[in-house]
Amino acid sequence: MNRRDILRAASGLTAVGALAACKGSSAPPVAADPLSGTSLMRDVETYVGFGIHRSGGAGDLATTDWFAKRWAALGYEIEQQHYEIPNADTTAATLSVAGETFDGFGQPPLVFTSGEGLPAPLAMWDEAHPENVAKRIAVVYVPAPSSGFSPSAAYRAAFAKAADAGAAAVLGVISGPSGEIVAINTPVDLKPTVPVLLIGEREKPRLDAAMAKGGDAVLRLEGPGGMRPASNTIARHGDTGPWLIVSTPQSGWFTCGGERGPGVAMSLALAEWAVQKKLPCRLCFVSNSGHEWIYFGGRQFQKSGAPEPADTAMWFHLGASYAARAYEQTPDGLKPLDTANPNCVLMVSDDLMASAQAAFAGQPGIGTPAAADVATSAGELTAVIEEGYKSFAGFWGGHALFHTPIDKADATTPQILETVARSVAKVIEDKLA
């Protein structure tokens, strides 16, 4: 019994079984071409239709059940890996000041207010004068860099400094291309300090006007708190040969259409395609919850569910935003384009480089694959490299609606999905056929 077998026996892995998981399934019939844009887009729309995908919430649990049923219908043996994760839902997340009310997002780790909320004056955070926010609600605004993406790390650092300076709470006015709230991924063990509420940059003019009137604000942050169960779903097929592993996160702060939708849809499609192709290997597909908690679910799979590196022919990780659409910033706001999002990366091991260069040639962002380098890798792919898997490929990135409440199914298109999916399949086939 190897290390992972021992850990697996002691972990929360539950065998579901193909027939049990299929019972009562409303899975669609096997597609003649699972990699078609029409089929992929249908699955993105279904995924987004489940609602908010925070780990352990209703949308996440529906996704977990859907994956199990779909994969089981293809003949995969199903196991589910269970763990506890913080409950990030809130029942109230608002700021009221000078007759204005701002609906926001409670940024984890959550600290709740009591009674009628937390009353205090607002004060702009200025790192040169941290004393200004003592016993006040610190208003943190960090302009977005030229790339346009929200500077999440800078916000997180400012929140911590404001709390250390004695702020009673923090209001983050989050910059970014959409003007919407941009939630920030959070280590599961990050210690809570003060309540943190996020609002989008589009609310800044209204907030500035309210602050100019003076007076106390009231910040309310309420919710169930505590921990709740979440699960990874692992699907295995075949009895002999090395393993092909395909992984994707399924969870995120909001509906995650362009962020997670392509990976979810392609995991389902590639599982079907791989069975049709009769690839000369065993198949292991995994959909991880816990992603927004700094890859917690992915690390659970690494610890006790993943095949050993020595037994694995190839690992392909389907990360964030790699098949979302591009957007153009205009005076009237973001304009969706029919071209693919260029703000993404494909990193591959040396043995896959020539195949990946040919398969993805000309595609924005991912058309020039990056050479494997653990120091510059990101997302859940980093752990794959750290664990010593020799042959791997993986995506990561962000798009204009990344981590926002408006990241819906229309953040991608059938054509973008099909183009990328066929390229992924080609690299897998080149390696294994």
Write a concise keyword list for the protein shown above:
alpha/beta; Aminopeptidase; Glucose Oxidase, domain 1; five-stranded mixed sheet; 28% helix; elongated; disordered N terminus
| Stretches with pLDDT under 50, minimum 5 residues | 1-10, 18-26
Number of helices: 11
In CATH terms, what is the fold-level topology of the largest domain? Aminopeptidase
Distance between the termini: 30 Å
Shape: elongated
Q: Helix amount, in percent?
A: 25-40%
| Oligomeric composition of the shown chains | single chain
Radius of gyration: 22 Å
**What average pLDDT do the residues reach?**
94
Strand order of the largest sheet: 1-2-12-14-13-15-20-18-19
CATH superfamily of the largest domain: Zn peptidases
Strand content: 25-35%
Summarize the structure.
With 433 residues, this protein is of the alpha/beta class. Helix content is 28%, strand content 26%.
Give an overview in words.
The protein is of the alpha/beta class and 433 residues long. It folds into two domains: 3-87 and 228-432, Aminopeptidase (3-Layer(aba) Sandwich), CATH 3.40.630.10; 92-222, Glucose Oxidase, domain 1. 28% of the residues lie in helices and 26% in strands. The chain contains eleven helices and 20 strands. The strands form four sheets. It has a nine-stranded mixed β-sheet with strand order 1-2-12-14-13-15-20-18-19, sandwiched between helices. Strands 5-10-9-8-7 form a five-stranded mixed β-sheet, covered by helices on one side. Helix 7 links the parallel strand 13 and strand 14. Helix 3 crosses helix 11 (414-432). The radius of gyration is 22 Å and the shape is elongated.
